[in-house]
Design a protein that fits this description.
The chain is about 45% helix and about 25% strand. The protein has about 110 residues and is of the alpha/beta class. The two termini are about 20 Å apart.
């Protein structure tokens, strides 16, 4: 299940309520965002089942995006235990993102799926 975030308070609560959380910042008028999100969502859910997913529509949540230092889209920020560990912006390789998430995820959950 993907959570939609619109405010900094919602963002902070989401990141701190989950041991592992990924927040995707995208835009309705961004072709790369629209093409990447379904693939990213499906892959992260399959490989990292305990990773909570959230989506931020930057056009509707400009203050949140600015507070998170997101000035371009798409951006994915992955948090472990409330701290940001991985951030990718623009066009990025899913395999590289998975590699960057795999070690801290396995250390936290003891899973070797990734």
């Amino acid at each position: 299940m993907v959570t939609s975030l619109d405010t900094l308070a919602e963002f902070d609560a989401f990141v701190h309520q989950h041991l592992a959380a990924a927040v995707y910042f995208g835009g309705a008028h961004c072709g790369v965002c629209r093409a990447l999100w379904p693939k990213l969502e499906a892959r992260l859910a399959a490989v990292f089942p305990q990773l909570a997913l959230a989506y931020v529509e930057v056009g509707q949540a400009q203050a949140l995006a600015a507070a998170c230092n997101v000035f371009t889209v798409p951006v994915i920020a992955v948090h472990f235990e409330g701290r940001e560990w991985v951030r990718r912006a623009g066009a990025f390789a899913l395999a590289e993102l998975e590699r960057d998430i795999a070690r801290p995820y396995a250390m936290l959950f003891g899973e070797a799926d990734a």
